[in-house]
Amino acid sequence: MKHIRVAACMLMLALAGCDNNDNAPTAVKNDETPAAQSAPTKDPAQLQKLAQQSEGKELTLLDASEVQLDGAATLVLTFSIPLDPEQDFARTVHVVDKKSGKVDGAWELSPNLKELRLRHLEPNRDLVVSVERDLTALNKNRLWPRV
């Protein structure tokens, strides 16, 4: 009987050791990942190289879709060429819910400078996305062809 008690105590200690209530390392890892992904490269030499590669190409919106990014619903706008990271995207790209009005949140530019992301969308919303003609690419082209 004594052996059973000792075995039961050892089993309880082993199971208690498996309980991981410490979420701090996971939270730190999650905080680092989006920051690394959302910070577009701002090295002037690399920006110049990207601008030269897209020289003569028109800026067009290729896709607007909802994806899961880091477990959150995210609206992603994909463009044909890299965007200028120095512009204020909140001034040129707008998202409105048909029922409740303007959607809260900030646009973030992907590291490749071709995707704008709006994270943490609420479910079951009917959204309208509008992009102003002032949206500018690295090669200084605007979204709409000049008339």
Describe the structure.
The chain is an alpha+beta fold and 147 residues long. It has a domain of 89 residues: Immunoglobulin-like, CATH 2.60.40.1220. β5 and β6 form a beta hairpin. The chain is globular, with a radius of gyration of 24 Å.
Topology:
Blueprint: H1 2-18, H2 24-38, H3 44-53, E1 61-69, E2 72-79, H4 89-92, E3 93-97, E4 101-102, E5 107-109, E6 115-118, E7 127-131
Antiparallel strand pairs: 1-2, 2-6, 3-4, 3-7, 5-6
Q: What is the structure about, briefly put?
A:
Helices cover 31% and strands 24% of the residues.
What fold name stands as the CATH topology of the domain at 43-131? Immunoglobulin-like
Helix and strand composition category: alpha+beta
Strand order, sheet with most strands: 1-2-6-5
In helices, the fraction of residues equals 25-40%
Flag low-confidence runs. Answer: 13-21, 24-39
Biggest beta sheet summary: 4 strands, antiparallel
Protein name: Protease inhibitor
Domain Alpha-2-macroglobulin MG1: 51-143
Region (Disordered): 26-51
InterPro entries: A2MG_MG1
Looking at this protein, list some descriptive labels.
147 residues; alpha+beta; Immunoglobulin-like; three-stranded antiparallel sheet; 4 helices; globular
